[in-house]
Amino acid sequence: MHQPPPWALDGSERLTLEGFLESFGEAWARTERRFLKLECWQAYREADGVQSQEAFQAGDAALARRLLQEEAMGDQPLRDEVRSRNLQFTRVRLLAYPLTDYLHYEMINYEVRSRLGEDIEFFVPPSPVESYFDFLLFDSHTALIHDYGPGPVGHQTGGWLTHHRETLHALADIADDLRTRGEQMRPLEGIPDTSRA
Q1: Positive/negative CA dihedral, 114, 94, 31, 72
Q2: Do 87 and 80 form a contact (C-beta atoms < 8 A)?
Q3: Which of 50, 58, 66, 185 has the smallest number of Cβ neighbours within 10 A?
């Protein structure tokens, strides 16, 4: 489920979670034009102690929204940097219906972040969502591919770093194919009023 295929890992370097974060910083510093994040899993296990998720799971969507707004404001320096560097920063989020409980929670987060100017695109993919995998693409020079384990809930344990030209082109092609053949959705328009409290 959501496992990267062998071709995506050809010539890659295996990373621990710490190495993944370090490689992210290095690739981000070199990025001049485009950063793209593909998110596929329909449920992720957040870090322990994520108060917004705990509030949502306890049935308090209004508190979850307030906490998500606080969390999002903590990322304002990143949004400022994206603007000052004139970067294209896009999250491509794959959806399968009916949405999981996790995605009902994340939709509040996406709505909050969209209002702050983050570019988030939603697609139902042309192939089963399980056949896709999470990755980060930095211009045409670097990709980081996530390792979220065997599932069914994604929990990052590390990943892979690649500069392999054919892999980078293939990853860009995945994003292009989703935008061409996937069904673009506007789920933020359908968030119930109770989630907007």
Answers
A1: positive
A2: no
A3: 58
What's the whole-model pTM score?
0.90
- Helix and strand numbers (H, E) in the chain are 7, 8
* pLDDT tens by residue, 61-84: 999 999 999 999 999 999 999 999
**Pairing mode of beta strands 142-147, 135-138:** antiparallel
Please say whether the beta carbons of 159 and 143 come within 8 A: no
Q: Which pLDDT belongs to residue 189?
A: 73
Q: Provide the token pair at 46.
A: 């957040």
Beta-sheet pairing, 88-94 with 142-147: unpaired
Q: What is the distance of C-alpha 96 from the center of its chain? A: 15
Residue 146's DSSP bridge partners are 159
